[in-house]
Write a structure and sequence with these properties.
Order of helices and strands: EEEEEHEEHHEHEEHEHEHEHEHEHHH
Strand content: 15-25%
Radius of gyration: 21 Å
Largest sheet: 7 strands, mixed
Shape: globular
Strand order of the largest sheet: 5-4-1-6-7-8-9
Number of helices: 12
Length: 364
């Protein structure tokens, strides 16, 4: 299992040193730490980091935080301020939320690997506000405005910023005024291999609102084509009610099962605008072409006509047209060419670039 959407920081000493074994995107960018401490906002048992020396904050003792840590978000800044790190040369923060707020002494360097500036504060703050009861919105608006100011100040404390995609680097520039180096996350391409293609499409993702799986279900209801959906999440029951008979739900699948599905699927379908989209790269590592929305970092991982096709609109109609274009390709997709493209995002490529970023950070 991965780490989930969890912020954490790793104090490192001495430097440079190949201390980290990197395996997955935001879930596994820092997969395991040999003899170094990991400072986490919440529990990491049952994740890829559970073997590390983990120090969690007082948030860990609050009832209910393991099941829904988002409800405790207003307490995160206070919890982070309570952290005291040892005297080390460099702190690496893997941040999708507030890990870059980690306290540091004047002589310490902070290298941030940013998966996305926190959506609730920045790119999706209007969506977040719309979900709140109307009476709470003025207070929430003022609170988020204060947090955005503090978030920008925290970001400016960093010695160096890296981003998991050019899409995220652009957000860092717009929101923080910081230029970030792009280092795509590591994909364990060795886990995947092309197989014999079968007559079904695959949607492999968490069943959450922002993944737009309802568009996939609606489009395949219209097309009448076989679709397998692998993954679980809060939208599961709603999507099952919406789906036609030719759509199969598998629920959560293991990494091994996911690799087998990607090796056999005719194509993978994904309609979210991703910050990187590791599952789409894993599909290509298995020689599986991808049908994806033309947005976000999807544009950085798919070569149109060679490793997949794009849906120009994030809509049922846009996906229907994209699937039809996929089926009517003049030239067949070549699994070996698709896999070769995915190798650009291998673990070795990531480690090479990340080590360079560490050296640059500590020597500047």
């Amino acid at each position: 299992p991965g780490v989930g959407r969890t912020d954490f920081a790793v104090p490192l000493l001495p430097l440079p040193n190949p201390l980290l074994d990197h395996r997955r995107e935001r879930e596994r960018v820092i997969d395991h730490v040999h003899d170094r401490a990991v400072v986490a906002v919440r529990e990491l048992r049952g994740t890829a980091l559970e073997a590390a020396d983990i120090h969690s904050t007082w948030l860990q003792s609050l009832p209910g935080i393991r099941n829904n840590h988002y409800r405790f978000f207003p307490l995160f800044p206070s919890a982070l301020k309570s952290i005291r790190l040892p005297e080390v040369d460099l702190i690496v923060a893997s941040s999708y939320a507030l890990a870059h707020w980690i306290p540091k002494s004047p002589g310490q360097r902070l290298l941030v690997y940013c998966h996305t500036p926190l959506r609730y504060l920045w790119s999706q703050r209007q969506v977040f506000m719309a979900r709140l009861p109307a009476p709470l919105r003025p207070l929430a608006s003022a609170f988020l405005k204060m947090l955005r100011r503090k978030d920008r100040q925290a970001a400016l404390r960093a010695s160096a910023y890296t981003a998991n995609s050019a899409w995220v680097a652009d957000q860092i520039r717009r929101y923080y005024g910081i230029r970030a180096t792009v280092i795509h996350p590591p994909v364990d391409t060795d886990r995947f291999a092309p197989g014999a293609r079968e007559d079904f499409f695959l949607c492999l993702t968490r069943l959450a609102p922002h993944k737009r799986v309802e568009l996939v279900v609606q489009a395949f209801n219209e097309l009448g084509l076989p679709l397998v959906i692998a993954g679980d999440g809060p939208e599961g029951k709603k999507l099952r009610r919406l789906a036609g008979k030719q759509i199969t739900f598998l629920g959560h699948v293991s990494d091994r099962e996911a690799g087998d599905l990607l090796a056999r699927a005719k194509g993978m379908v994904h309609m979210a605008a991703e910050d990187f989209g590791i599952a789409m790269v894993e599909a290509q590592a298995a020689g599986c072409p991808v049908i994806a929305f033309r947005g976000g970092a999807n544009l950085e991982t798919i070569v149109e006509g060679k490793t997949g096709v794009y849906a120009d609109e994030q809509s049922q109609e846009g996906l229907v047209r994209a699937v039809q274009n996929f089926l009517n390709q003049n030239e067949p997709f070549r699994p070996d060419d698709i896999r070769t493209h995915a190798l650009r995002f291998s673990k070795d490529k990531f480690l090479e670039k990340f080590r360079t970023a560490v050296l640059r950070c500590v020597s500047s």
